[in-house]
User: Fold this.
Amino acid sequence: QVQLVESGGGLVQAGGSLRLSCTFVGRFFGIDAMGWYRQAPGKQRELVATITDNGHTNYADSVKGRFTISRDNAKNTMSLQMNSLKPEDTAVYYCNVQAKPEPWSVAHYPYWGQGTQVTVSS
Assistant:
């Protein structure tokens, strides 16, 4: 069984920083892109940032210049450094990996973590 375990969420004042981590447990095959998504109450889940196998990054306009996504293949982890946090960043943050269920699979499958709560007070 494979799973993604997130950590690092919490309560912080506006302007503060948090660092989220996602640990890959088990063996993932053919990892393609990975990233962070978030879902605020009453809203749809939205992309925050992604990073490809070759390190190419992509960010939502709302977090550009404040958030940084990174990955450590040797440690099987992915992180999201969040600076200058705003109340509108309050949401449950989810780790996502696109990988193959088996080495011989053709298609990639989206794997999700359980989510970690980030609350930014004004």
